[in-house]
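Hi again,

Forgot to attach this to my earlier email, sorry! This is the prediction with nicotinamide-adenine-dinucleotide bound. I've pasted everything inline since the attachment limit keeps bouncing my files.
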Amino acid sequence: MRALVTGGAGFLGSHLCDLLLAKGYEVVCVDNLITGNTQNIAHIKSEKFSYINHDVTKPLYLEEKIDFLYHLASPASPIDYLELPIQTLKVGALGTHNMLGLAKEKRARFLLASTSEIYGDPLVNPQTEEYWGNVNPIGPRGVYDEAKRFAEAMTMAYHRYHKLDTRIVRIFNTFGTRMRLNDGRVVPNFIGQALRGEDLTVYGDGSQTRSFCYVSDEIEGIYRLMMSDYAMPVNIGNPEEHTILEFARIILRITGKSSKIAFKPLPVDDPKQRRPDITKARELLGWEPKVSLERGLKETIKYFKDVLSTVK
Ligand code: NAD
Ligand code: UDP
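Structure tokens for the complex follow:
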């Protein structure tokens, strides 16, 4: 069996390549490195692995057969997609269209990496897959939210019109090793700040909530969804919800650091609450997160300590 992973040199994509190789798949990783890095796949020595440097907003023609296509390519951190608004819209729209076309040509099963951001600033908590969301289409985050909403619509159109075998995973905040220290997301920001002895930058009053899933749990959920026969969207995330202020204190406790908290302005349209309802994942996939926040953070802190020691 051969799987293609777009965004395979990114944080989640590289962990997915590892899991697929461990399960015996041949893996083709496609990435243009716009936010990814070949460092994330440098450890892979398997002959079953290949890497193609390609921008998926352009069509991709391959000789070889593909059985499963995981489409993860897209900037994912708010800082990245605010800096790369057009590329973000293009990879969600043109990139998804091209990869659906490739899956159709190869008769491959297709999985779209969607996001909890399609719920926008949600008015219901926790979010079930039936909730349509509360998105500002013209705000700065709209480039990501609307690209992913378009990508979901396009995936369902290929499913309904072309009878393509498709899956949609709505990924909630995931963290772990191989995140970029400077990608701007809250986990690398707070850990990096704590380890460097700097103030932790809490945006707004820190009362907004998020729910953090460790990367190994997320990847297992994505794989199980691909293996299932369910074509409608499924939330994969950890339902344990924390305010960002609580989260800052957790990071200080686990790192054993005594940095202060510095309150900074809240970014425009920053969602006030986010927590997945994972009933579908539990019932359809027999999936739920196994790694506690504490254990996941300890692994991640260890990783960032190593990164910081090589930067110095
Ligand atoms: P990441 O930035 O580490 O990885 C994204 C990868 O896609 C990078 O390697 C980047 O170079 C590549 N890419 C972007 N545009 C491309 C293009 N046009 N052609 C080829 N490659 C391209 O981010 P991540 O956190 O690993 O996110 C992976 C996917 O998961 C994204 O689709 C993201 O929207 C989704 N997601 C992630 C999270 C999370 O918490 N990590 C949450 C929700 C959704
Ligand atoms: N955040 C914060 N300080 C930071 C980075 C982020 O308070 O240094 C907040 C951000 O405003 C949001 C939450 O942490 O409410 C999660 O932000 P992240 O960028 O990780 O992802 P999001 O869930 O917003 O996509």
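Residues 78, 173, 185-186, 189, 201-203, 208, 210, 244, 267, 270 surround uridine-5'-diphosphate (ligand 2) (CB under 6 Å). DSSP finds nine helices and 13 strands in the chain.

That should be everything now.

G.
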